[in-house]
Known about the structure:
Layout: E1 10-14, H1 17-20, H2 66-79, E2 84-88, H3 91-94, H4 105-120, E3 124-130, H5 136-142, H6 149-164, E4 171-175, H7 190-198, H8 208-236, E5 241-247, E6 251-253, H9 258-280, H10 285-294, H11 302-310, E7 315-319, E8 324-328, E9 342-345, H12 361-374, E10 380-384, H13 401-420, E11 425-431, E12 451-453, E13 465-467, H14 469-479
Parallel strand pairs: 1-2, 1-11, 2-3, 3-4, 4-5, 5-7, 6-8, 7-10, 10-11
Antiparallel strand pairs: 8-9, 12-13
The structure holds 2-(hydroxymethyl)phenyl 6-O-phosphono-beta-D-glucopyranoside (P53).
Amino acid sequence: xxxxxxxxxxxxxxxxxxxxxxxxxxxxxxxxxxxxxxxxxxxxxxxxxxxxxxxxxxxxxxxxxxxxxxxxxxxxxxxxxxxxxxxxxxxxxxxxxxxxxxxxxxxxxxxxxxxxxxxxxxxxxxxxxxxxxxxxxxxxxxxxxxxxxxxxxxxxxxxxxxxxxxxxxxxxxxxxxxxxxxxxxxxxxxxxxxxxxxxxxxxxxxxxxxxxxxxxxxxxxxxxxxxxxxxxxxxxxxxxxxxxxxxxxxxxxxxxxxxxxxxxxxxxxxxxxxxxxxxxxxxxxxxxxxxxxxxxxxxxxxxxxxxxxxxxxxxxxxxxxxxxxxxxxxxxxxxxxxxxxxxxxxxxxxxxxxxxxxxxxxxxxxxxxxxxxxxxxxxxxxxxxxxxxxxxxxxxxxxxxxxxxxxxxxxxxxxxxxxxxxxxxxxxxxxxxxxxxxxxxxxxxxxxxxxxxxxxxxxxxxxxxxxxxxxxxxxxxxxxxxxxx
Length: 485
Ligand code: P53
């Protein structure tokens, strides 16, 4: 028996354009940084290729053909009782190259129709402006977010869509999981993360500090661009609710050793300045001290600082999948820039998914409390949470009790955070309510959906949709306002 959430709680699901739409070069769409990512595999990173090279498997080129099927797919979301649905606008449908003088009308029209359909179904659109899919041209010509000019391109794009969809969309967020790129210590994923966040590629022999320097400067421009967009959005429509978006994973110390505690705190601070800038409009003290002593993020102006203060977000959007354990490599102090002074280790106390992600529902309640301690009263929307798993279809059915177990346990913790701890969580959008291409691995077989999509890792299959067992379960959760888990 779950605890009841408010009648206006935003139950639903979330996807991103590049993982679902396909139609990568249709109706004037330009090449995005997701379009040149090959398929990886479980434990095998995706490759970033130099443009689209014939013969490679680029899973985002087809996604789940959502570009053509969104009406049928949204009807299934409506059948589950969705109050909200999050997706992103593919920047390259609107500005195919990023620096185009005029937007692409066919791309604008596509989202007009999609948002109309969502509103017709009574589903609130929650829209991400930049979900790992900036125009590839901006990388080739300008060096991605290492170039201050990209701020203006982003702002023009944001202004265009805020204006066009005013009256159709109220909830927005700027950059998806902006702090992922701080995971410089992650051997498997760091190349992917700095690419998808910032369009940067470091030389193979780049040192950790060189990467850190490049990352903090690019992130500064992203934060300025976000703050400008927030200001412009509010000027266009004061009713717009515009958020910053971060992946949050609680960091636990590997032991009570003071060096582990300090390393854990520093690792947390390495992720937290993004949210401080979004929410408070200022960089935290330890970041300023780090920037002053290293000279990284050297290009910051007084005007930037004013923009950041004037463009604070209205809410925090978060994704939550797992928790992490931090171990200091030595007993020495860890400083902000010592990304190699600690390592991420396995937590022996919690199980893991087939992709090695720690399963920790209590960590979600813990995180929500931590966030509210840090930013008291700020509304939080959970815009991703879910269980990537292999599914078997047996006689046209998918018995995904493992997925139900994961989601049930996490939703129960959200309810405790809201009802018992008083945290203002305004919505829960599970990740990938319909199976989509995995961002991290490019696999189709890493599935999150309530709806099964008959496509395999090579993009082969009928594309047919099936309701899994979790479909009826989630429908009942929503209908009961979370009491019937
Ligand atoms: P997948 C990890 C790795 C890659 C992207 O991930 C990630 C994360 C989690 O922090 O971010 C989000 O598909 C992202 C989504 C993505 C989802 O996690 O690798 O916002 O685009 O699909 C799940 O299992």
